[in-house]
Design goal:
With 218 residues, the chain is α/β, with parallel strands linked by helices. It has 10 helices and 8 strands. The chain has an 8-stranded parallel β-sheet with strand order 7-6-5-4-3-2-1-8. Helix 3 links the parallel strand 2 and strand 3. The two termini are 18 Å apart. The protein binds pyridoxal-5'-phosphate. Pyridoxal-5'-phosphate binds next to strand 8 and helix 10.
């Protein structure tokens, strides 16, 4: 099945209010262009270098999102153009984005990545630690950041009840945080190729889909 067919099929099947992020990591610029030709404008990448290289040569109306672990020393390379950094998982990273965004006169949209699973190798805040940080007030003082919501992943498991539990927990985190950030806090990014339908059932507003669109990554 062609990439453009997959894009239109997916877009047709997502409920109103759920946005498709096409995860193009490890896939070629021509694959991105195929999705672009089918009308897709929002793309996710997990590595800074690849994101910057694609953004430099592909159409400027593409909305690039950083979804992978971000090192502080690489923030500078994407802050001038990135549309949303979904993977903010530490106070020091938030601070670095705030400083660099200020330097280029931008307000950068971010999501707070939360790990609700038992998987310790997963990136993301533990919710209690995130709440401590948020309640400390530093994040709210970072004037060059706009906190748009929450990003997370479910446990990599065949047990549907575990996956559902994780998505329900992320939704709960989102609900607890929203009153602190207000109206702009409107993105709950969860669900990938294997589990996005369950994520949508639990309130996802944004799904990040790679292999179902572009094929396996090698
Ligand atoms: C790779 C990746 C995805 C997409 O995964 P697929 O299973 O290929 O759909 C989504 N979110 C993050 C954070 C990723 O790194």
């Amino acid at each position: 099945m062609s990439i453009s067919f997959k894009i239109s099929e997916l877009k047709g099947s997502l409920p109103d209010g759920v946005e498709l992020v096409a995860v193009s990591k490890f896939h070629s610029e021509s694959s991105v262009m195929e999705a672009y030709s089918a009308g897709q404008r929002v793309f996710g990448e997990s590595r800074v270098q690849e994101l910057a290289a694609k953004a430099a040569v592909l159409p400027s109306d593409i909305e690039w999102r950083m979804i992978g672990h971000l090192q502080r020393n690489k923030v500078r390379q994407i802050v001038p153009f990135v549309a949303l950094i979904e993977s903010v998982d530490s106070a020091r990273l938030a601070q670095e984005i705030d400083v660099r965004a200020g330097e280029c006169g931008r307000v950068v949209d971010i999501l707070l990545q939360i790990n609700v699973t038992q998987e310790l190798n997963k990136e993301g805040w533990r919710f209690e630690e995130l709440m401590e940080f948020v309640n400390g007030g530093d994040l709210l003082r970072m004037a060059n950041l706009r906190v748009r919501g929450v990003m997370g992943m479910a446990t990599n498991s065949d047990d549907e009840s575990v996956v559902r539990g994780d998505f329900a927990a992320l939704r709960c985190c989102f609900g607890e945080l929203k009153p602190l950030f207000g109206d702009a806090f409107d993105i709950l990014s969860m669900g990938m190729s294997g589990d996005y339908e369950l994520a949508i059932e639990h309130g996802a507003t944004s799904v990040r889909i790679g292999s179902s669109i572009f094929g396996e990554r090698y």
